[in-house]
Amino acid sequence: MSTPSDSGSSAARFRRPGRLFPSVAASIEGEPDPASSTDLAHDSARALLDGVFHSADPEVVRRVVTLAQEEGLADLAALWSGSPATTLPGALWRLYVLHTWVRRDGEDVVRRYRAGARTVPGLRYLSGIAEPPEVQQVHATMDEILRGAFTGDLPLALRRAGAVATIVAHGSAHLADGPEADGEADTRSAERLLRTGEELVAAARAAEAGRLD
């Protein structure tokens, strides 16, 4: 079962999400030029964030929260997956990947979360997931975190997402020692999730310092 950092940049043919905002579509006409891929990633991420932040239309917010579900991660991977974590496109990419994984594998996430919450109880309050966690509640919380990144406090949203990833990482490591576990695979999964959590927290710090560009 794939976890957030399993999703790489080997996206299929690039398609631009022109239905969201004209400013985003205008910045990514046609196939991306490798020489300008960094500018493309930053410009599109900023256009998307600004477009939602300055919109009072709830439908716009709904569409950005469900962007990866409706369009798939391949489009976002083509834009953002190669960006460092402490950049806006890199941070948004990791946030969307985590959100998509939680949405797709909710029962597995809840199982790992429950195991990890006992190991790092202090992060439970930051994540915002009440005890005991249930699938629908975890889905709703991740929607709230992603929505908050675009409409509210971006650093806080990134910290909350980092807390979720870290708790689930600890749970994965704990379950890796279980009798029915695939120890090596579960350990690798825990390492990837922990790295994702650390990267999201690093992105939050950069955002707080005004350096997430």
Could you give a short account of the major beta sheet? none
Helix content: 55-70%
Strand content is under 5%
The ordered string of helix (H) and strand (E) elements is HHHHHHHHHHH
The counted number of beta strands is 0
Distance between the termini: 32 Å
Low-pLDDT sequence parts:
7-35
Structural class, judged by helices and strands?
Answer: mainly alpha
Report the principal-axis shape: globular
Tally of helical runs? 11
Overall residue-averaged pLDDT value: 82
Radius of gyration: 17 Å
How would you sum up this structure, described in words?
- By secondary structure, the chain is mainly α.
- Helix content is 68%, strand content 0%.
- The chain contains 11 helices and no strands.
- Helix 3 crosses helix 9, helix 5 runs antiparallel to helix 6 and helix 6 packs antiparallel against helix 9.
- The longest helix has 26 residues.
- It is globular.
What's the helix and strand layout?
Layout: H1 22-27, H2 37-53, H3 58-65, H4 67-71, H5 73-80, H6 88-104, H7 106-117, H8 122-127, H9 135-151, H10 154-175, H11 183-208
Short description, anyone?
This protein is mostly helical and 213 residues long. The protein contains 11 helices and no strands.
